[in-house]
Write a structure and sequence with these properties.
Layout: H1 2-12, H2 19-31, E1 35-41, E2 47-50, E3 61-62, H3 67-74, E4 78-81, E5 87-96, E6 99-109, H4 115-135, H5 141-145, H6 153-161, E7 166-168, E8 172-179, E9 187-193, E10 197-205, H7 209-227, H8 233-248, E11 254-262, E12 267-273, E13 277-282, E14 285-289, E15 308-311, E16 317-321, H9 323-326, H10 337-347, H11 356-368, E17 376-383
């Protein structure tokens, strides 16, 4: 425990841009580490990028078929004996509240690979993840390391607007992904939680490129501003609608699905203001859950919105998809459609929520025989519910 506390202090007091150097030095000193490497998941969740001093970079590792990739997918620490004996490579998830940031790879002497020390190193990897999230306010080091290629300006704006790509609490787990990851423009998701409610929004701004990103940015911040005023989702939609109409006079608008979950009861209130769809997997049944369609935000002046209600049960999986998924066309003009989407949802049944969006988007890419050129968004929410207190 003494070694752990000393290492924790070193990580928490390091300068934002020197976190990896601090981790490496303290693990060498207190755990006899032979090498330490930090791998960040790229925006497409396809490779793990080594954190190095730019412009010098090391080769990325695939998330498929590598020990680091397996640890990233399973979110469990993985050990691998080094060829020749005498040392062990540990692959430790760097994760913050379910949001998978990457993997910390630590090579230690075989005798230091005890259950107690592996548990301490695993905890230190989680602490490192939290420090990276804080450090991102002050340095670009870790954001740069995530890039397998250059982001478009629109994509830069969209990724900076997101709350994360996953979130786990006792009552639920969320996973989300956008494609094309390096050229996304109009699609977006957002969430916020209190002790009693989870608010989730799925947004699709019309247009392309920077214009779509600017439009979505305005919509998301208008919704956040209304939400933080403590009002219900119908009024949140109305205020965001007014903000968009005031700026664009109905010439540009945003499709949005807003939902508010009661954590205690599973009661959900929803406002369907456009094209994002909700699908539910309950047991072996996968079905599209339709709502009464209402006007997209910003289309007309002073639109009125009404929330509808439905119930989620423990074990339910909810999937939210943009029209870039269910309406995508293959090279031969075949629409991805409800049948293929339902099949993709079924195929991902055994995956955790954080891995489901990537799996469904890969199925979509296989259908298109290419990476999607239109925005495609998938958000997965697994509902566990709150235990009833006696």
């Amino acid at each position: 425990m003494k070694n752990f506390l000393a290492a924790e202090h070193a990580v928490r007091t390091a300068a934002p841009f020197e976190l990896l150097d601090a981790v490496r030095a303290t693990l060498v000193e207190h755990y006899d580490a032979l090498s330490v490497e930090l791998l960040m998941a790229d925006y497409g969740l396809t490779v793990l990028q080594p954190v190095t001093e730019l412009p010098h970079t090391s080769e990325p590792l695939s998330v498929n078929g590598t020990p680091a990739g397996r640890a990233f997918a399973s979110q469990d620490p993985l050990s691998h004996a080094v060829s020749g004996g005498g040392a062990v490579d540990l692959f430790l998830p760097v994760t913050v509240r379910g949001d998978r940031l990457g993997i910390l790879t630590v090579r230690v002497p075989e005798e230091r690979c005890t259950p107690e020390e592996v548990a301490e190193l695993t905890a230190l990897a989680e602490i490192l993840g939290r420090e990276i999230v804080v450090a991102d306010r002050d340095t670009d080091v870790y954001l740069q390391a995530r890039r397998a290629s250059r982001l478009t300006l629109a994509a830069e704006m969209q990724w900076q607007l997101l709350p994360g790509r996953a979130c786990t609490r006792t009552e639920y787990a969320i996973g989300a992904q956008l494609e094309p990851a390096y050229a996304i423009h109009g699609d977006n998701f957002d969430w916020a939680v209190t002790s009693e409610t989870l608010t989730l929004t799925i947004t699709n701004g019309m247009g392309e490129g920077i214009e779509a990103a600017l439009l979505t940015n305005l919509a998301v911040n208008a919704l956040r501003n209304a939400r933080r005023a403590g009002i219900g989702i119908a009024d949140q939609a109305a205020l965001a609608d007014q903000a968009l109409y005031a700026q664009h006079r109905g010439e540009e608008y945003v499709s949005t699905l807003l939902l508010s979950f009661e954590l205690e009861t599973g009661r959900v209130r929803a406002v369907d203001a456009g094209s994002p769809q909700l699908w539910r997997q309950r047991g072996m049944t996968v079905e599209h859950i339709p709502f009464e369609a209402q006007l997209p935000l910003g289309m007309f002046e002073e639109s009125q919105y009404v929330a509808q209600e439905f119930q989620v049960r423990p074990g339910d999986r909810l999937l939210f998809v943009s029209d870039g998924v269910y309406a995508a066309l293959s090279e031969t003009g075949e629409e991805y459609g409800e049948r293929m989407l339902a099949r993709a949802i079924q195929a991902a049944s055994l995956l955790p929520a954080s891995a489901v969006p990537r799996a469904i988007l890969q199925e979509l890419a296989d259908h298109l025989n290419a990476v999607a050129d239109d925005d495609a968004l998938v958000v997965c929410l697994d509902w566990f519910g709150r235990e009833t207190r006696a």
